[in-house]
Amino acid sequence: MGTTGLTGTAAITAALAFLGGPMGVLGGIAVLGIVGLISETLAETSFEDLLIAIYCQRRLSEQELT
Q: Is 0.90 surpassed by the pTM of this model?
């Protein structure tokens, strides 16, 4: 919004139109939705993988102690 020199609703409209490219404001809204879904999926997957790796290491270390 700072690059357009606009304020308020005009700045939001310009930013969405820029993100949407040839599809305009609706394309910008779609881009924001897609980016949100992708980031949510990556966050969940990475967190689950991290927990699985931690518990696998823990199980291996417990087996070595017995």
A: no
Residue 13: other Cβ atoms inside 10 A: 15
For 6, left (φ over 0), alpha (ψ -120 to 50), or beta?
beta
> Looking at the chain, how many residues does it have?
66
Instruction: Write the DSSP symbol of residue 32.
Output: H
- Tens digits of per-residue pLDDT, 2-39? 666 788 888 888 889 998 999 999 999 999 999 999 99
CA angle 37–19–33, rounded 5-degree value: 20
In the structure encoding, which two tokens stand for residue 64, read together? 């070595």
